[in-house]
Amino acid sequence: MINETFVASSPKEAFAQAVEKYGTDDLEIVSAKQLRYDDGQIRAEVVIAVDKALFREKSFGIENFRPKKSTEEAQMLDEIGALKTEIDRMKENLTEDLIKEESVAQKIKDLFVKKGIAPKWIDTIFATLIGTPIIADESLLVSYLLEEIDETLQTKEEDLSSPKIMMLVGPTGVGKSTTIAKLAARFAYLLERPYKVALINLDSYKVGAIEQLSHYAEIMQIEHFAVPTPEAFQERLEALESYDIVLVDTAGMSPYDTNKFVKTVSFVTSETPRKLEVNLVLPATVKYEDMDDIYQNFSFLNLDSVIISKFDETRHFGTLLNFMLLYKLPMSYFCIGQEVPDDLMVANKEYLLERFIGDVHEG
Ligand SMILES: Nc1nc2c(ncn2[C@@H]2O[C@H](COP(=O)(O)OP(=O)(O)OP(=O)(O)O)[C@@H](O)[C@H]2O)c(=O)[nH]1
Ligand SMILES: [Mg+2]
């Protein structure tokens, strides 16, 4: 409470002032007295007790009571307020953009991973795109990834300008012998000029392996030989020195078959009269879980290229692409069916990419 004094010529008038100010006569009167002032006049003083807040409100008004800010301070506060609103708006937009970018990138990553591409490879590409408009735009991002795949893929041109030995290695049943027959027919009969071709079979494990190759060789009238040891291999190659192309078939090996593996390595590392090109035959149907094992085991043979077989047996090429992106081996030929000699083509990136794009667009 606070004591407030009203002064007038009579106590009645002084009280009337208090009633007028507070709008009520229900006021607590503390004292009422008449005094002679220094100027000789007699005046009445009525003191009432009022609530502090009510006193401030009635005396100064609520607005007036607040401490007055200087114009400069008020201006600054206004500016800070505007700035804060702007920051809040920017924060909102930024979060929206980030969420949008993240969801576009995540969606495309999920799609490519679903198609068999390794998340690690995608992350490496995305890391180079942060802050660019590409990462926030679905179709730009898909095109960018496809371009990256295209650039990373390598093909090996068919080069028959000098004599060579081509050995085909790979897991069991991937189509090595069939591909040898297709290649033999291509080189001997289907190119601009005929090449002198011979076949050597190192596969002494599989029942009927020699017969399988002999069958094709006899139809095509191409020389064919089976050799049991690296020494015999060496001798045979020397005897075939006048041939343009010697194709060498090997036993299919599971990546865990050490016996066959050691034997094949001994053939590969034996002295040959000319360079031996080792080609891994990999089916387009390769399983994601098997990829690493296949590479780890066969890369010991110093692979020159990869021949992709069984293109016709799948519509999903992501895992195969993943293998090529990860190990960066050039592709040399594609086998697109069982028919000898027709179902063979020189490797071509567009052919593979078109099929992959078809698969991606199916979602
Ligand atoms: N659909 C399809 N089948 C193929 C292709 N290439 C080979 N094959 C088939 O795959 C099977 C195995 O072929 P082979 O040539 O004997 O395979 P391989 O790698 O020599 O097998 P092993 O010597 O036992 O390791 C055969 O039935 C072939 O007809 C192809 O491109 N597409
Ligand atoms: Mg075979």
Describe the structure.
It is a single chain. This protein has 13 helices and eleven strands. The protein is α/β, with parallel strands linked by helices and 363 residues long. The chain folds into three domains: 2-65, Alpha-Beta Plaits; 71-152; 164-350, P-loop containing nucleotide triphosphate hydrolases (Rossmann fold, 3-Layer(aba) Sandwich). Strands 6-5-7-4-8-9-10-11 form an eight-stranded mixed beta sheet, with helices on both faces. It has a three-stranded antiparallel beta sheet with strand order 1-3-2. The chain has helices spanning 11-22, 52-60, 62-65, 71-114, 119-127, 138-152, 176-190, 209-220, 230-239, 258-268, 288-298, 318-327, 349-361, and strands at 2-8, 28-36, 42-50, 164-169, 197-201, 223-226, 245-249, 276-283, 305-309, 331-335, 344-346. The longest helix is centred in the N-terminal third of the chain and has 44 residues, at 71-114. The structure holds guanosine-5'-triphosphate and magnesium ion. The site of guanosine-5'-triphosphate has 20 residues, from helix 7.
What string, H for helix and E for strand, traces the elements in order?
A: EHEEHHHHHEHEHEHEHEHEHEEH
CATH class assignment of the largest domain? Alpha Beta
Shape, principal axes of CA atoms: rod-shaped
CATH H-tier superfamily of the largest domain:
P-loop containing nucleotide triphosphate hydrolases
Which regions are unreliable across 5 or more consecutive residues at pLDDT < 50? none
List the bound ligands. guanosine-5'-triphosphate, magnesium ion
- How much strand? 15-25%
| Secondary structural class | alpha/beta
Number of domains: 3
Find the CATH topology of the largest domain: Rossmann fold
Give the neighbour order of strands across the main sheet: 6-5-7-4-8-9-10-11
Tally of helical segments:
13
